[in-house]
Amino acid sequence: MISTLLLAVIYLIFISLGLPDSLLGSGWPVMQQYFNVPSSYAGYVSMTISFMTIISALLSPRIISKLHTKWIVICSIILTIFGLVGFSFSSAYWMLFIFAIPYGLGAGAIDSAINHYVANNYSSSVMNFLHCFYGVGAVISPNIMAVALRYAGWNEGYSWTACIQTFILLVCIISLPLWKKNEGEEENQEQYSAGIMETVKVSGVIFTLIAFFAYCSGEATCFLWTSSYFAETKTGMTDGMIAAFGSLIFGGLMMGRLIAGFVSNRLGDRMLLRIGISIEVLGIIMVLLPGEGYITDAIGFVIIGIGMGPVYPAIQHMAPANFGKKYSASVIGLQMASAYVGSTFMPLVFGKLQQNIGMAIMPVYLIIFAIINLVMLEITYLAVKGE
Question: Mean per-residue pLDDT for 225-241?
């Protein structure tokens, strides 16, 4: 009973992790007008958030060895709430950068800690369901923003999301006694954990980091620019519809991870990754098809999300199996840092490209990273097998 309740709380924590991630992209077409800045300036805010997440992810192995997962969760959610509230009160563009600091710091440590905890204590199926709940949070917040844009303003989209995060924080505080069951095992695992410098020398680690970088480069580009893609390449869409369409990729992610949760134990992580990336490429090809209508593109972004769905959780879940429990905390921390390097810089690079070439370049940009992801994963398997 306690294990079931704890798992339910962990799922709720991942809903909270997904909530802030899609707000900037869905609200930016209106926020851009409010702050009177170019469209590419969303990339600078996103880059700041991701940069802070890189810092907390790199520090996560040390934090995990010093603090129990439950306390990392509590502190991280508090930081995220502070960032969301700060965004809601921002009246000038520069203010966003101040509150991007706690916004980003709150994400990296909790993401690494929970992924490490689940990878070492639960099956691949649980990992996929866990990240499915991340998709739930990421789908909810663009729709919160859409309602806010219709009835209030973009500021309220952030403040309403902060209220939901506060409720989740209270649930986490109430549930603190549930974590006692595995505290002894946590301490034993971290006692023999390797450091980051030792871990990067392990065969295959560098390739899996490049794969994760490529995956998250494409994912973050979709997170930030999907709404803008529809705003600039399609006709006959309202501001609310454009904001809501920012949730298409997240809806696809949620469906992909839900499906993967039922089949992952049977297929295995490697096969799941190959199938997922192939489906992602199919969705990108649909978006590449010419036309001013938005239906085909909308379906394409959902399919991209479905294909992306199992990639993140499968790569994370493979860490202990591929590299051993001794290295798993540092591998996952490095993967998170590598992921957020992609999330930090590549949406910004795309922002510059679309400013000079046009938003229609987006599917070409995405397919390049999908191919890099697949190739690097296959090289990782060979490196691990050859050791």
Answer: 81
Q: Whose CA is closest to 249, among 227, 271, 228?
A: 227
Report residue 321 as tokens.
Answer: 């199996």
Domain 2-386 -> CATH class? mainly alpha
**Chain centre to alpha carbon of residue 119:** 17
Q: Is the pLDDT of residue 304 over 90?
A: yes
Q: Rounded distance, CA 345 to CA 367, Å? A: 17
Name the nearest CA neighbour of 113 among 386, 348, 329, 379.
329
Model confidence over 37-70: pLDDT tens digits?
Answer: 888 788 788 888 878 888 887 777 777 767 777 8
Q: How far apart are alpha carbons 174 and 221 in whole angstroms?
A: 36
Q: Which residue has the higher pLDDT, 7 or 210?
A: 210
How far is the CA of 56 from the CAs of 52, 210, 337, in angstroms? 6, 19, 8
Tokens of 378: 């296959």
Across 169-192, average pLDDT:
70
